[in-house]
Amino acid sequence: MKVYFISGLGADERVFQFLNLPGIEKVYIKWIDPETQESLTSYASRLTAQIDLTQDIILVGISFGGIIAQEIAKIKACKKVILISSIKSPDEFSWQLSLVSFSQIYRLFPAKILKWSNVLTADYYFSTTSKTESKLLHQIIKETDNRFMLWAIDRLMTWKNPDPQKSIIHIHGTSDRVFPISPIKSCIIVQGGGHFIVVNKSTELSKIIMENI
Fold it and tell me: Which of 90, 96, 120, 185 is most buried when burial is the number of CB atoms within 10 A of its CB?
């Protein structure tokens, strides 16, 4: 069975390396450079070039990748869409993210400042549990393209999804600090899991994915 995986903002297939999914052919969607002021719909449409549209489409998206997965599913019929540590609409933002989205304060800061801020707070917000996890996370942040990061943050903060698809499978940790669980509706709970459950709760997460594919 072929399954397409979409990583979080600026990340790549390294975040999926700890998943144990026997019998699954993992295909990793690669991020591409966004065009100037490109919409999520347009961007998601261009990503479908990496998908075999002649077969059933199963998407697994983490964080921002989950939003992209939902946008792809609006364009191409998908057999299943699985979200990990993500949201189904801005209604699932925390009050802090809702305030950032409303004020658009993030637009006042250049990429270098935003990335520096991420470096300082990443281990807390992602709830890393070891030096190995922290090293992987900081490598991802360091390698994230500045232009892509600014585009993705703006698209996340201005995303509208008034009618989330009912068939979405949503897996979420109870201790997620990026997207706190309190506003999240209809999800499979990973007890004690933070935003990095794909890494530090990979055994439990693998079992849930296999049960739902």
Answer: 90
